[in-house]
Sequence to fold (610 residues):
Amino acid sequence: MQSSDDLKAVLKSIDRSGYKSYKTLAGRYKFEDYVLIFDKIQSDPFARPSRLRVRVPCDVAGFPQALYSSPVRRIALGDYLTRKFYSSCNESRQKVRGSGKSGALSIVPCGQEVLDRSSMFITDEYVEARFVAGLPADGRIILGNEAYAMLFGILPNIVRQSLKYQNLDKNALTKHIEVVEDQEFMRQKLVELGLIAFVADGSILPRRSGVDDRPMAGIMVDAGTLNVVNPGEIGASIVIPFKSPQSLRIEIKTPNRGTIGGMALAPGVTLIAGGGFHGKSTLLSALEKGIYNHLPGDGREYVVTTESAIKIKSEQGRNVEKVDIRPFIDNLPFEQSTSAFTTQNASGSTSQSASIMESLQMGAELILIDEDTSATNFMIRDVRMQQLVPKDREPITPFVDKIRQMYSDLDVSTILVMGGSGDYFDVADTVLVMDNYLVKDMTVKAQTIAIDYRTKRQIEGGDRFGELISRCPIKRSMSAHSGQHEVKLEVKGKSKIQYGESEIDLSALDQLVDRCQTRAIADAIYYGVMSYLKDLDSSMTIPELIKKICQDISEKGLDILSPYVRGDYAKPRSFEIGAAINRLRSLKVRQIRPKEQDQEGVVGEKESVG
Fold:
């Protein structure tokens, strides 16, 4: 390891040299209270910034061991420090000038969720921040003095502000960790209490906009009396804190905040009804994000949902590869089979059917669906349509006729937003009605209506839900090579992955919240293929492959996904990794069926149903 004086000497020697001379900086340098590590140095001032690390010994950083004494506390501390490092970098912008990305210092930005990230690595020996830096240049000529100012002036100040306990807001840091810890405790408590979700009283569920996930700000109105609590600004939005119906209210005692009261949802079928614009989708959106912990002040800190909840949407045009969708779609014209349904251009109904079947294969225990983002013919077929088009002429079995079996046969619950069809009253265990953003338990009334206004609709779902057929990926179809030799893995925002010669579209995955998760998903798929290559093409199913990948990440950390250190990973769930694999357009699989039912039938590349 070299000294900081050695770094000064190198910067002086390469001043005004060609940009590639920056490569001589590679290595580690011991500063007074931290080590600076150059992992990858950019080749051009307009290229992606260089990847660096700062490693501060624990005795210098000074964080009490209690702040990272458990996995969830370690994640929360890392999240807080990443946010502080990011804000400190922003404060230093424009202090060093030059071409391209000269002088830029940054770490990955964080959203409202607290994720397990690789940006901040915390051990019992040190705290390590992983960030990027644009090494200064004039055109392609090194600016040594500016680089010195950045590395010996700006960077040490960022380290002091963000990585030393003595300089942080200790109350804010402690609150951040305790709020995250309470959420994780509550999510685990759901299992003990036999629940699928909990929404705390006082939660602020609406967001500012479709592109701003922060809580809505405005005129605060008391949920019980509708009296104004906080007048806000003239013309501001009205914000109503969540209040649980008394019939569904429970209390959970948390380690830090104490007792928290709110609405508990039990397993089964929960229907969220109500008029348009009264908050149905807002509640469902909060529940779908309840799989994550949130930072203090988000408004959804104490909205928790079982970890195995999956949001399902219609995805016109998605790829489907040998999925048995017979529980929902069967008896196609011309005797085409859907036992191994394959298409490059799925319709709304077939895409939704495939997504549910894939999620069930992955072990989902809760399905979340909003009628606004669903295929109408997948959701319902009323009595009049049944009279016009008999069942033997309709391949689609609507979700209303399978939702109950999904719970009774597979123990998989559903939370469904449905404002357009009362036929779901017949299958719902709990009916919530949103009225001016207030939740009312209308289960008894809905059940009474179902009895008083029988529709004479015929149930079309049969006696059982149907089979879950295992699928084994074929290794050659999961190659990331573009051409003969080059491996191509490129992340294009949060929703696109270029994997070899195929593009993976993840835009329908509403529970994917960060580009860093997408980066990890891309590399996790490639890691899984390379690590378990010999097992593919045999009997390893997609869920088994993903289980091995996730187990390796849990045991060894996110760093196993790359041959070099990266600070831009956020841990994804197994469900999103599975969803990405299933949307890989080059994917080919082999089904594993019981011998007596071993048969294959494939619908052609062009979708013809729905």
Summary: Residues 30 and 97 are 26 Å apart (CA to CA).
